Structure formats: C-alpha cells, structure tokens
Please model this.
Amino acid sequence: FQRLPLYTNEILESYRREGLLNSQGMGGVNKPLAPHIYAIADRAYRQMMSAERKSQSILISGESGAGKTESTKIVMLYLTTLGSNVPS
Model:
C-alpha cells in the first residue's frame, strides 16, 4: 500500500479557501479544484451558514468496507475546522 496525500492540512486549507472565495462571489479566479469530499462538506457548510440558513445533510453510503466510517470522520474534521474559524 502507498499513502496518498488526499487529506493533508494543505489540501483541507485549499478547499477551505476556495469555499470562502466562492461564498463571497470571488470564485473561479484560480483553476477549479478536483472533486473531493472536502468540497461536498464545504458546500453544505456554506449553505447552512448563508443568510437563508438552509438545513443540510450529507449521505455517505457504500458497501461493507467501502470507507463510510472514515469518510464520515473526514467530513466531521472538515466541518469542525470550518466551525472553529468562525468569529463569534
């Protein structure tokens, strides 16, 4: 097995930055980021925190051993990272 750098802090930060720019209408300046679980979590978070306060849910499904638990942990890490950076 080879570890792939899919969930590093640098990757997380790049999706956080991209989501912030998109939420302020300044997205599309750089090359779009590849589809990623961080992008899904970011979009749900940004819609939940928007002026409309839309309720959100993320459905993670798959067969046994497909990585549902790990994917859920990754989503929760991303959401807590975003939530901890919100000014009070």
Summary: The longest helix spans residues 68-84. The two ends are 43 Å apart (CA to CA). The chain has a mean pLDDT of 89. The helical segments are 9-23, 37-49, 68-84.
